[in-house]
Amino acid sequence: MKPTELRTYLYEEANKAMSAAGFNAYPQKALQGCYSYKINEGCIGQVTLGASPHLGSLNINPSIGTRLLEVEDLVDRWLPLLPGESKLDRSIGVTLGQNLGYISSIDKWVTYVTDSTTDIDRALLETMAMLTEFGIPFMQKHSSLESIYAAVIRTTTNRTSKPRCSTNNRSEPILHLLMNENERAYEIIQKEFLTHLAWDTSAVPGIHRSYAEHLLEFIEERKTKSKE
């Protein structure tokens, strides 16, 4: 089968398996292979089965994460869409995430190289087993501001800590801000959005600098309120 045919088969079978496990497939064609899992009112679990053709095969990379609405709503408010980024792309961004293999007991990056429907069936079977045993508990455990913040701190201070997980540079300063860690947030803003990009005059750094300004204003507002 061609990789495009394998991908069609993958998503057809994955939709059935994920639905049976309590996940919802996104209806948009551009989000095929992306599934949501409502954990609570403020947090959504996210699973993505990234599928890309390579040398006649189809590579499948399962990833998992949680999207904390309190954080991502502020990202959406202050950070305009980047060049090439769509609203759909932004809507499935996670606050905390990782390849599913790192969340499981095998503790390594998982990629399935598939050449047949039999390969895909095997990959899905293993993915669903990891998701049930490790993935869903991981999402449920990391579904609040405090738990996600603790995971980020644990990972940044100890790279060998498990399960391995990470956040993105646009969400991380907001996590620190909401946890009243203004100094650490300021350090990240300076490093990731100001100093690091100072040499670049393209559109992306300009957008990031604007984002940094909003974050710094938020810090000043918090400081003012604390003095009142």
Secondary structure elements and pairings:
Layout: H1 3-20, E1 24-25, E2 34-40, E3 43-54, E4 57-68, H2 69-78, H3 87-91, E5 96-99, H4 100-103, E6 112-114, H5 117-141, H6 145-157, H7 172-178, H8 182-195, H9 203-227
Antiparallel strand pairs: 1-2, 2-3, 3-4, 4-5, 4-6
Structural write-up:
With 228 residues, the protein is an alpha+beta fold. Helices cover 53% and strands 18% of the residues. Strands 1, 2, 3, 4, 5 and 6 form a 6-stranded antiparallel sheet that branches. A hairpin with a 2-residue loop joins strand 2 (34-40) and strand 3. Helix 1 packs across helix 5, helix 6 crosses helix 7 and helix 7 (172-178) packs antiparallel against helix 8. The radius of gyration is 19 Å and the shape is elongated.
Head-to-tail CA distance between termini: 68 Å
Q: Mind summarizing the main beta sheet?
A: 6 strands, antiparallel
Name the overall outline.
elongated
- Compute the number of strand runs: 6
Q: Can you tell me the residue ranges where pLDDT is under 50 for at least 5 consecutive residues?
A: none
Radius of gyration: 19 Å
Helix content: 40-55%
Structural class: alpha+beta
Taking all residues together, what is the mean pLDDT?
89
**What's the SSE pattern?**
HEEEEHHEHEHHHHH
Features:
228 residues; alpha+beta
How would you summarize what this structure contains?
The chain contains 9 helices and 6 strands. With 228 residues, it is α+β, with helices and mostly antiparallel strands.
